[in-house]
DNA sequence: ATGATATATATCGTGCACGATATAATCGTT
DNA sequence: AACGATTATATCGTGCACGATATATATCAT
């Protein structure tokens, strides 16, 4: 016999034992929960994330949005153009540094914040979690993410 | 004054306080960690998930793969065709019920399992988590996901 | 047997995500 | 001043994800 643990290998590869699939499927479930709520605002979930960044601090570079959301410009550029088409943001080159494109909220984009403010609460209610549970889960995920990111860069 | 808690609203919408973004960004980090490992097997992460299903039980309907991965056929059909083009699976109509398409592993697809068996361990090592931590995190995510799915259907 | 309904998969269009590459502006060194 | 390297954004091609719709088979009521 070459190997004495056929079960260990099967256990390791079982879908329901995989943390990665738990994260993957939870992400889809959350996105689907947000979908009908965001439809009413007329934006997609990644677009909503960009708005969260801008509602915190307006008029930032494309690259800075990318750093916060951990996305590349090849994702953000077309997304930001759609937000511009929707009339929610403006994009203009920085006069100081013509390489930079500054993204800023329009009045319409700023006003959307009021409607969006209700969303996290509604998703929280659907989650069935307590506040400490959510915080612990979030903390564990962020810690995991940051460790993986540190290892990926090596 | 209409509202006395401008800070509460800001807190709720802060990117770094959002569980949804923690899940979203952790998912990306995990996918990026898998990417170079899966490149060597010649498959993408969602394709790998399909293979996990088939390695557990071979020759299943498209719809059953969809149920396990929580994906629709509009995602799976083209993905399965790519796996077929890669020579990893076969797709054939069920003789009993001509509506069904049965997906089964080729020898090549079966053989890939040996190489894939090392992956979870390597990602686990990069996670920096202990086994109980991973299990708790996975359990919390699955519970959250299933509650959200139950609420979404309402 | 026949038509209505349900089931299983496929197709189409849009948007996200990313590797690879391109383009243009800036900076540093000489 | 000039040139190479770096920085910031954009473009292109591929694959995933999903809503809407289509198609074909199966089932059920009559």
Automatic annotation (TrEMBL), chains A, B:
Gene Ontology terms describing biological process: response to stress
Superkingdom of this protein's organism: Bacteria
Identification of the protein by name: MarR family transcriptional regulator
Keyword terms of this UniProt record: Cytoplasm, DNA-binding, Transcription, Transcription regulation
Subcellular location: Cytoplasm
UniProt xrefs under Gene3D superfamilies: Winged helix-like DNA-binding domain superfamily/Winged helix DNA-binding domain (1.10.10.10)
Organism classification: Bacteria, Pseudomonadati, Pseudomonadota, Alphaproteobacteria, Sphingomonadales
Annotated GO CC locations: cytoplasm
Domain spans labelled HTH marR-type: 16-146
SMART domains per UniProt: HTH_MARR
UniProt-listed PROSITE patterns: HTH_MARR_2
GO molecular-function terms, A-Z: DNA binding; DNA-binding transcription factor activity
Keyword Cytoplasm: yes
């Amino acid at each position: 016999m070459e190997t004495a643990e056929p079960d260990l290998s099967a256990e390791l590869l079982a879908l329901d034992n995989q943390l990665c699939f738990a994260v993957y499927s939870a992400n889809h479930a959350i996105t689907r929960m947000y979908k009908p709520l965001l439809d009413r605002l007329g934006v997609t979930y990644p677009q909503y994330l960009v708005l969260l960044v801008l509602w915190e601090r307006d008029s930032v570079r494309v690259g800075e949005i990318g750093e916060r959301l951990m996305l590349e410009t090849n994702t953000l550029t077309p997304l930001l153009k759609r937000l511009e088409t929707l009339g929610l943001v403006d994009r203009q080159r920085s006069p100081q540094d013509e390489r930079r494109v500054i993204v800023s909220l329009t009045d319409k984009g700023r006003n959307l914040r009021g409607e969006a403010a209700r969303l996290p609460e509604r998703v929280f209610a659907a989650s069935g979690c307590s506040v400490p549970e959510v915080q612990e889960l979030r903390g564990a995920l962020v810690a995991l993410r940051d460790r993986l990111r540190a290892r990926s860069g090596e």
